[in-house]
Amino acid sequence: MPELILPTTRLHAEFLECHQEWGPGLHEDGFGLGPGDDVHSPEGFAAWVHERTRLTHPAGAPCPDEPHGSPRWLVEHGRVLGGFALRHRFDPLRGHIGYGVRPSARRRGLAAWALGEMLGEARAALGVDRVLLVCAVDNVASARTIERNGGVFDDIQDTELGSIRRYWIDLVPTA
After folding, report:
1. Whole-prediction pTM
2. The sheet that has 3-5: what strands, in order across it?
Protein backbone atom coordinates (compact mmCIF):
# COMPACT_ATOMS: atom_id res chain seq x y z
CA MET A 1 0.00 0.00 0.00
CA PRO A 2 1.53 3.35 -0.99
CA GLU A 3 1.74 6.21 1.48
CA LEU A 4 2.81 9.84 1.53
CA ILE A 5 5.37 10.61 4.22
CA LEU A 6 7.57 13.50 5.29
CA PRO A 7 11.06 13.26 3.80
CA THR A 8 13.41 11.39 6.11
CA THR A 9 17.13 10.70 6.26
CA ARG A 10 16.26 7.08 7.08
CA LEU A 11 15.52 6.51 3.37
CA HIS A 12 18.74 8.01 1.97
CA ALA A 13 19.74 4.95 -0.09
CA GLU A 14 16.19 4.52 -1.40
CA PHE A 15 16.01 8.21 -2.33
CA LEU A 16 19.30 7.96 -4.23
CA GLU A 17 18.01 4.92 -6.12
CA CYS A 18 14.90 6.88 -7.10
CA HIS A 19 16.92 9.97 -8.05
CA GLN A 20 19.35 7.92 -10.13
CA GLU A 21 16.52 6.34 -12.10
CA TRP A 22 15.62 9.74 -13.55
CA GLY A 23 19.15 10.33 -14.75
CA PRO A 24 21.12 13.57 -14.56
CA GLY A 25 19.36 16.89 -14.13
CA LEU A 26 16.81 18.54 -11.88
CA HIS A 27 13.56 17.25 -13.28
CA GLU A 28 11.97 15.68 -10.21
CA ASP A 29 9.73 18.66 -9.40
CA GLY A 30 8.11 17.21 -6.29
CA PHE A 31 11.43 16.77 -4.50
CA GLY A 32 12.43 20.42 -4.64
CA LEU A 33 16.00 19.76 -5.71
CA GLY A 34 18.13 22.77 -6.49
CA PRO A 35 21.34 22.96 -8.52
CA GLY A 36 23.56 23.27 -5.44
CA ASP A 37 21.88 20.58 -3.33
CA ASP A 38 24.15 17.77 -2.17
CA VAL A 39 21.95 14.71 -1.77
CA HIS A 40 24.76 12.18 -2.20
CA SER A 41 26.76 12.59 1.00
CA PRO A 42 25.00 11.68 4.28
CA GLU A 43 25.70 15.16 5.67
CA GLY A 44 24.48 16.96 2.56
CA PHE A 45 21.40 14.77 2.40
CA ALA A 46 20.59 15.43 6.07
CA ALA A 47 20.94 19.18 5.50
CA TRP A 48 18.73 19.01 2.40
CA VAL A 49 16.01 17.00 4.20
CA HIS A 50 16.15 19.44 7.12
CA GLU A 51 15.76 22.40 4.75
CA ARG A 52 12.78 20.73 3.04
CA THR A 53 10.99 19.98 6.32
CA ARG A 54 12.00 22.72 8.76
CA LEU A 55 9.02 25.00 8.06
CA THR A 56 6.33 22.33 7.86
CA HIS A 57 3.44 22.99 10.20
CA PRO A 58 -0.01 21.60 10.93
CA ALA A 59 -2.95 22.68 8.78
CA GLY A 60 -4.49 25.83 10.19
CA ALA A 61 -1.29 26.99 11.91
CA PRO A 62 0.00 30.36 10.73
CA CYS A 63 2.41 30.16 7.82
CA PRO A 64 5.98 31.39 8.28
CA ASP A 65 6.88 34.50 6.29
CA GLU A 66 9.38 32.75 4.03
CA PRO A 67 8.51 30.49 1.09
CA HIS A 68 7.83 26.95 2.25
CA GLY A 69 5.67 23.96 1.59
CA SER A 70 4.47 20.56 2.64
CA PRO A 71 6.90 18.06 1.11
CA ARG A 72 5.88 14.42 0.83
CA TRP A 73 7.56 11.33 -0.51
CA LEU A 74 5.53 8.62 -2.17
CA VAL A 75 6.74 5.40 -0.56
CA GLU A 76 5.70 1.78 -0.98
CA HIS A 77 7.32 -1.18 0.80
CA GLY A 78 10.22 1.05 1.87
CA ARG A 79 10.89 2.22 -1.72
CA VAL A 80 10.82 5.91 -2.62
CA LEU A 81 8.62 6.15 -5.71
CA GLY A 82 8.27 9.90 -6.07
CA GLY A 83 8.02 13.32 -4.51
CA PHE A 84 5.12 15.72 -4.04
CA ALA A 85 5.27 19.31 -2.81
CA LEU A 86 2.42 21.56 -1.76
CA ARG A 87 3.71 25.11 -2.01
CA HIS A 88 2.14 27.38 0.59
CA ARG A 89 2.88 30.51 -1.43
CA PHE A 90 1.44 30.98 -4.89
CA ASP A 91 4.04 30.40 -7.60
CA PRO A 92 2.65 31.25 -11.06
CA LEU A 93 5.58 29.48 -12.72
CA ARG A 94 5.50 26.19 -10.76
CA GLY A 95 1.96 26.17 -9.40
CA HIS A 96 0.73 25.17 -5.96
CA ILE A 97 1.62 21.48 -6.25
CA GLY A 98 4.61 19.90 -7.94
CA TYR A 99 5.18 16.19 -8.30
CA GLY A 100 7.15 13.47 -9.98
CA VAL A 101 6.97 9.69 -9.98
CA ARG A 102 10.02 7.62 -10.89
CA PRO A 103 9.78 5.98 -14.33
CA SER A 104 9.53 2.38 -13.05
CA ALA A 105 6.52 3.26 -10.84
CA ARG A 106 4.45 5.02 -13.50
CA ARG A 107 1.27 3.78 -15.17
CA ARG A 108 -0.12 2.39 -11.89
CA GLY A 109 -2.32 5.35 -10.90
CA LEU A 110 0.04 6.34 -8.09
CA ALA A 111 0.42 9.95 -9.25
CA ALA A 112 -3.35 10.43 -9.49
CA TRP A 113 -3.87 8.91 -6.03
CA ALA A 114 -1.11 10.98 -4.40
CA LEU A 115 -2.23 14.18 -6.14
CA GLY A 116 -5.72 13.58 -4.76
CA GLU A 117 -4.24 13.28 -1.27
CA MET A 118 -2.27 16.49 -1.74
CA LEU A 119 -5.42 18.30 -2.89
CA GLY A 120 -7.02 17.30 0.41
CA GLU A 121 -4.05 18.79 2.22
CA ALA A 122 -4.31 21.94 0.11
CA ARG A 123 -7.97 22.30 1.15
CA ALA A 124 -6.97 22.10 4.80
CA ALA A 125 -3.80 24.18 4.68
CA LEU A 126 -4.01 26.94 2.10
CA GLY A 127 -7.36 28.68 2.56
CA VAL A 128 -7.82 29.16 -1.20
CA ASP A 129 -10.70 28.18 -3.49
CA ARG A 130 -8.52 26.70 -6.22
CA VAL A 131 -4.96 25.64 -6.94
CA LEU A 132 -2.75 25.93 -10.00
CA LEU A 133 -0.90 22.93 -11.37
CA VAL A 134 1.50 23.06 -14.29
CA CYS A 135 3.27 20.51 -16.43
CA ALA A 136 5.49 20.57 -19.48
CA VAL A 137 3.54 20.87 -22.72
CA ASP A 138 4.77 17.49 -23.91
CA ASN A 139 4.05 15.67 -20.61
CA VAL A 140 0.78 14.04 -21.64
CA ALA A 141 0.76 11.64 -18.67
CA SER A 142 0.99 14.51 -16.18
CA ALA A 143 -1.71 16.45 -18.00
CA ARG A 144 -4.01 13.40 -17.76
CA THR A 145 -3.20 12.99 -14.06
CA ILE A 146 -4.13 16.61 -13.41
CA GLU A 147 -7.32 16.28 -15.48
CA ARG A 148 -8.32 13.09 -13.58
CA ASN A 149 -8.17 15.14 -10.41
CA GLY A 150 -10.46 17.86 -11.76
CA GLY A 151 -7.91 20.03 -13.53
CA VAL A 152 -9.40 22.49 -16.01
CA PHE A 153 -7.02 23.61 -18.74
CA ASP A 154 -6.27 27.33 -18.63
CA ASP A 155 -3.52 28.04 -21.14
CA ILE A 156 -0.04 27.31 -22.44
CA GLN A 157 2.75 29.69 -21.51
CA ASP A 158 6.35 29.97 -22.60
CA THR A 159 8.46 30.37 -19.47
CA GLU A 160 12.08 30.18 -18.36
CA LEU A 161 11.34 26.52 -17.58
CA GLY A 162 10.05 25.89 -21.11
CA SER A 163 6.51 25.71 -22.44
CA ILE A 164 4.02 24.74 -19.75
CA ARG A 165 0.35 23.79 -19.60
CA ARG A 166 -1.54 25.49 -16.77
CA TYR A 167 -4.50 23.89 -15.03
CA TRP A 168 -6.77 25.06 -12.20
CA ILE A 169 -8.42 22.66 -9.76
CA ASP A 170 -11.32 23.87 -7.63
CA LEU A 171 -10.98 22.98 -3.97
CA VAL A 172 -14.50 24.06 -3.05
CA PRO A 173 -17.05 21.35 -3.90
CA THR A 174 -19.82 22.47 -6.24
CA ALA A 175 -23.39 21.76 -5.19
Report:
1. 0.90
2. 3-5, 69-76, 79-87, 97-101
- Point out which residues pair with 135 in neighbouring strands: 165
What HEC string does 48-104 produce?
HHHHHHCCCCCCCCCCCCCCCEEEEEEEECCEEEEEEEEECCCCCCCECEEEEECHH
Q: Is the pLDDT of residue 27 over 70?
A: no
Please report the pLDDT score of residue 24 as a whole number. 67
Question: What is d(CA 164, CA 131) in angstroms, rounded to the nearest whole number?
Answer: 16
Position 22 scores a pLDDT of 82
d(CA 75, CA 15): 10
Q: How far apart are CA 6 and CA 56, in angstroms?
A: 9
Report whether 133 contacts 93 (CB < 8 A).
Answer: no
Neighbours of 174 (CB within 10 A): 4
Count of CB atoms within 10 A of residue 86's CB? 22
**What radius of gyration do the chain's Cα atoms show?**
16
Q: What are the tens digits of pLDDT across the range 59-89?
A: 777 777 777 789 999 999 999 999 999 998 8
| DSSP 8-state code for residue 10 | G
Amino acid at 62: P
**Residue 69 bridge partners (DSSP):** 87
3-class SS of residue 44:
helix
**2 CA to centre of own chain:** 15
Among 151, 69, 68, which residue's Cα sits nearest to residue 112? Answer: 151
